[in-house]
Amino acid sequence: MNRERLQQMVTMLRNLPEDAIRFDLARWHDDENSCGTTACAVGHACFNKVFTDQGLKLVDDVPNFNGYESWDAVEEFFELSGPVSSDLFYSPHYPNGDRTTPGEVADRIEALLASQS
């Protein structure tokens, strides 16, 4: 688990607006919304300089890191197992599904970090 990157994710998520129109845990990315990019936590990270400078990018609307794509890229970037990355970033793992807020994802990441300290 890459604690530093996960903490950076928490910081980014805490600074996103709690606007369900622009945050959708069910989509990596969707720029069809006229008010700005809609994306999940990882999708937003793929546009954030903190993460892009470390190699996390969106390629063909899918996360990419060091040659890994999609969930494999998420797992490699954050150094997480598949089940843990799904628990943090996959909408069916949240009671509100794709209407989960950035703060709820940040809370879950912080709980994981606290449980592993």
What are the key terms here?
3 strands, mainly alpha, 117 residues, 6 helices, single chain
Characterize the structure shown.
- The chain is mainly alpha-helical and 117 residues long.
- It has one domain (3-115).
- Helices cover 44% and strands 8% of the residues.
- It contains six helices and three strands; from the N terminus they run H-H-H-E-E-E-H-H-H.
- The chain has a three-stranded antiparallel β-sheet with strand order 1-2-3.
- A hairpin with a 2-residue loop joins strand 1 and strand 2 (62-65).
- Residues 33-38 have low confidence and may be disordered.
What's this, in brief?
The protein has about 120 residues and is mainly alpha-helical. The protein has helices spanning about 5-15, 40-45, 50, 70-80, 80-90, 100-115, and strands at about 55-60, 60-65, 70. The protein has one domain (about 5-115).
As a percent range, the share of strand residues is 5-15%
What is the percent of helical residues? 40-55%
Task: Quickly count the helices.
Answer: 6
Biggest sheet features: 3 strands, antiparallel
How much is the average pLDDT?
A: 86
Strand order of the largest sheet: 1-2-3
How many domains, in number, for the residues?
1
Structural class: mainly alpha
Q: Which consecutive residue ranges, at least 5 long each, have pLDDT under 50?
A: 33-38
Query: Can you count the beta strands?
Result: 3
Rg of Cα set: 13 Å
Distance between termini? 11 Å
What is the global morphology?
globular
Q: What is the element string, with H for helices and E for strands?
A: HHHEEEHHH
